Amino acid sequence: MNTPNDTPAGAAGEAGSTGGRSPGEDLITFTDVTKRFGDNVVLDDLCFGVEANKHVTLIGPSGSGKTTILRLLMTLAKPDEGTIEVDGEYLTHERKNGKLVPAGEAHNRAVRKKIGMVFQQFNLFPNMRVLRNVTEAPVHVLGMEKDEAEERARGLIELVGLTEHLDKYPTQLSGGQQQRVAIARALAMRPKVLLLDEVTSALDPELVAGVLDVLRDIARSTDITMVCVTHEMSFARDISQKVLMFDQGKIVESGSPDKIFNDPDHERTREFLSSVH
Amino acid sequence: MTWGLVSNWILPGLWITVQVALFSALIALVVSFVIGTLRTSELWIVRFLSGAYFEIFRGASALVVIFWFAFAFPLLFGWQLVPLWAGALALGLTYGAYGSEIVRGSLAAVPEAQREAGIALSFTRLQRLRRIEIPQAWPEMVPPFNNLAIELLKGTALVSVIAVADLAFAGNVIRLSTNESAPVYTLLLVIYFVLAFGVTRGMRAVERHAKRGVGRLPERKPLFSRTAAATANGSTTDGGAR
Predict the structure, then answer these.
(1) How confident is the model at residue B223 (pLDDT cuts 50, 70, 90)?
(2) Domain layout of chain B by residue ranges
(3) Each residue's pLDDT tens digit, A74-108
(4) Which end of chain A has the smaller Cβ count within 10 Å, N or C?
(5) Cross-chain CB nearest to A123 (options B117, B124, B241)
């Protein structure tokens, strides 16, 4: 193992910025959000906010709507009712003549740039080597110079401990290594918000620690707002300032990790926590 | 059959056949990609129009399309195409319709997760196609394109009906002047087979190159690779590649 716990924070420190938003203000706001798949109500009139620079973990049984929240934030799905704001702008809606209307692709793409996502199945581009996986979007979406993008990518790849694998294709890497590349790829876009969707669920047990170490490091050394769905309760306890417990598309309770994990108010939360431990 | 007939008819005919095949393959390739990607559009009108193109040209007889470009096109538009180009255009548009189905199918086989990863990085739809989806679908397209290319090569014999002096046309001329059907057509069979075999070998190389481009084949190594050195310090950081 050579996960760089002691990497200088410089490489990641520049990755996120709050854009002049003072701490304590909500960076993400869900207002009356409902999402259905057929008759199945996945999110039920949901309201919550995430403060800038904070790390929030969503827990709950499978099917409780946690991943749907991340997919809505990434605009991979649209809410059936309600609105979502990120950094003062609506997702999948835009304001025209004072009215909220469904947003065009251009608006969505502009808002999307503020948000990065790491997927359960990594979803690296198999047709690109590791370095190009990380530089492709900065060069072609942000319009960064290729040299600059590569220099930053090298820094990020070093941060996730994969410098010697720069020239490999994703299929030549282990799952844990692929997931660390995926983290570097998301950070390369300098997102304000990083979404982590069960990022260790597809990994062999012995590879989980390396990925979580990298994320702990990023959580500590950057001011990126994180929204995290995980079944790794000790990781959730380590990095998050707030935990939201979901069941059947509603928030059962929320609070500090200490409160939720040690002294939850609801029976449903206790039940769930004892089932995952 | 004399050497004179071969050098006056067969060899020039071979060259014409190769030209028709190359030009129509080029047109077919462009049509395949344009129509094939349009058929994956999110706009129904684009899907409808490209789908209509596909159905019309798939349902049309290549021979009749060739006649149409040679004889109907000049009457309708007052503009006469050189017979070789009329033939190449007709074949390209027809075989391109089949090719569009190959492109559409291969694009549909790219995992949804790749599309989502592209969206998450804010790529536009066109960038996703060009940088993510088409490069990944390409290795899947090559074998069916090989089939189509051979079909097309053999289909070029149809242009002989509009007096393009290709191989088949040359064969006919020699048969009529010498009455030696057996040697003439046997020779033609062999020539078409050799051409088709050449296409297959070429497409194999294309396929290997395509697969290497998505990390699915070992990369070409220098003759004496540094395997020993690589094993010595090649320990992976988290437990080795799976």
Answers:
(1) low
(2) 3-234
(3) 999 999 999 999 998 888 888 887 788 888 888 88
(4) C
(5) B117
User: Exposed, middle or buried by CB within 10 Å (0-12, 13-18, 19+), for B6?
Assistant: middle
Class of domain B3-234: mainly alpha
CA B75 to chain centre: 30
pLDDT digits (tens, 9 = 90+) for B75-91: 999 888 899 999 999 99
B95-104: string of b/e by CB count within 10 Å (b at 16+)?
bbbbbbbbbb
A76 and B CB contact within 8 Å: yes
Q: Residues 6 or more apart from A38 whose CB is under 8 A from it?
A: none
Q: Are B80 and B74 in contact (CB under 8 A)?
A: yes
Residue among B120, B240, B242 whose CB faces A117 most closely: B120
- Distance separating alpha carbons of residues B131 and B203, to the nearest angstrom: 22
Rounded to a whole number of angstroms, the distance from the CA of A109 to the nearest CA of chain B is 6
Is residue B132 within 8 angstroms of chain A, CB to CB? yes
pTM value > 0.90: no
